[in-house]
Amino acid sequence: MKKPSAAIGTTAFLVCVPGVVAGLLPWWITRWQVRQSGAAWLPLRVAGAAMVVLGAGALIHAFVRFVGEGTGTPAPVAPTERLVVGGLYRYVRNPMYLAVAGIIVGQAALQAQLGLLVYAAAVLVVVEVFVRGYEEPTLQHRYGSQYATYCEAVPRWLPRRTAWHPDSEST
Of 45, 51, 114, 160, which sees the most CB atoms within 10 A? Predict the structure, then answer.
């Protein structure tokens, strides 16, 4: 796959999947209505806004890595030519899913909407089942020992404190 095609496919996937999961569905649940008001909620709202911004930045960073490093897309129908292990992927194997969850939780805090926390928990359960049942076996089959080495060194959900470097023997 050429990089322009990868960029188009990745952008389409970003809009269609995380855009729906972290944007359209939260809007559908809440209509982005704020439940509480007052100064006491200000720190929670600021923290929520920060989570949304940081999550969006992490999500975009991860998607860009698929084009630049992997020359492909996150979509299973157009996978990367190479395993993506740079950037945030040096700390955690699933930064995209964590970013989406962070965006949803951030919206919950920003809007004081408990329903979004319930939705975030449901999203995480679905993601866990998908990752273990489909994604990891598929990546193991596609990338073999390179993926096995990566999995040994980089945690699935809780980020490492230091970046993993594929060329080093220390994990």
Answer: 51
